[in-house]
Amino acid sequence: MAGKQNEKRKPAKPEKQKRAAEQEEASKPEKREKQEKQEKHKKKPAKSGKPAKPAKPGKRSKGAGGDGAATARPLRELLRVTPGDRPDLSRLDSSATPGGPRGKAAGLAAAALLAQPLADLQERLYAASTTGDRRRLLLVLQGMDTSGKGGTLKHVIGMFNPSGCRIKAFKAPTAEELANPFLWRIKKELPHPGEIGIFDRSHYEDVLIARVRELVPRNRVRNRYAQINRFEKALSDDGVTVVKVFLHIGYEEQRERLLARLDNPAKHWKFNEGDLEERSVWPAYQEAYELALEHCSTDVAPWYIVPADRKWYRNWAVSTLLLEHLEEIDPQYPKGDFDVEECRRRLLAG
After folding, report:
1. Given the DSSP bridges, would you call strands 196-200 and 165-169 parallel, antiparallel or unpaired?
2. Is residue 307's pLDDT more than 90?
3. How many CB atoms lie within 10 A of CB 224?
4. CA–CA dist 250, 248 (Å, integer)
5. Among positive and negative, which fits the CA dihedral 267, 272, 273, 275?
6. What are the DSSP calls for 243-286, one per residue?
């Protein structure tokens, strides 16, 4: 077809042919430069173990959907701290949105879409436990003051049936708790089979504030890293999926949030002068977190760093991480041990 069309065309004049050839030759360097830039961009590797920059639009991974979502990799791969690596929190952008939807509106819409699949998986997890399945999930939330642990509980855990959740906020230890090993109070609050447990702060306080405030000798803090790893390995062996999330907030963002609490009388109850004391040793806390992330991100219980300056991204990211882990558990409804048709016949007959 194309050949016949070419036969019908009138031959171009020599002068026009010469001009066209010159233009084509002049454009070749620009074309080559454009191709080289595209190839270079494609080959640029993403950093592992740290929150990456949003990828270009592509196919979303299973369960991490949403309008404008921008990565083909599971979020758990993008945000995971590689075992043995020490992240430099000062170099990680706390306002970044790695793998996330493009903008707040898209993020809120994407998070809302996760509610139904999360609720369905929670129901399947609980249903499976009624026939002896011991699997359950534990979400550990850590972060500096105002990083959004309470907000995450409100917005993310609100998607679940509360009767299937076990929530515990750990405060300063009581006299009884201090008289026991540091993991004693943690073990009492673990989720039962079929449940989703949420810790607002956790056993990691004993290697964070205990280190910064020198509440115990440094060598005891170092020993606790290994104790925590053994503890979490035992949980994994017993069917607990441990999802540990560090909500990474910036120094200036924390200032803004604390000022907002002071400016609003309705938020004064959330303000504590002790927060200013903790803020004064910010570098020491950042170092303590880096060490905890380095020593306690393991294959069975890795840490995930979630940039938390943007609340909509924080909520979407934590919801997506939960969805990815629940999908991996893949709980199933147990089969009935009765004759369905016989039960139907009896109901219709009566």
Report:
1. parallel
2. yes
3. 23
4. 7
5. negative
6. EEEEEE--HHHHHHHHHHHHH-GGGGGG--HHHHHHHTTHHHHH
Q: Retrieve residue 51's tokens.
A: 């929150």
Strands 240-248 and 165-169 turn out to be unpaired
| Of the listed ranges 26-35, 138-147, 156-165, 185-194, the one predicted with least confidence | 26-35
What integer is the mean pLDDT of 129-155? 96
Q: What is the rounded CA–CA span in Å between residue 244 and residue 295?
A: 13
Q: How many CA atoms lie within 13 A of 265 on its CB side?
A: 0
pLDDT of residue 23: 52
Which amino acid, residue 135?
R
Please, what's the b/e burial string for 39-51 (b: 16 or more CB within 10 A of its CB; e: otherwise)?
Answer: eeeeeeeeeebbb
Residues 321/76, Cβ–Cβ less than 8 Å? yes
* Residue 297 confidence (pLDDT) above 70: yes
Give residue 67's region: left, alpha or beta (phi > 0; psi -120 to 50): beta
Q: Is 76 helix (H, G, I), strand (E, B) or coil?
A: helix
Question: What does DSSP assign to residue 80?
Answer: B
Element of type H or E holding 169: strand 165-169
How many C-alpha atoms does 202 have within 13 Å on its Cβ side? 24
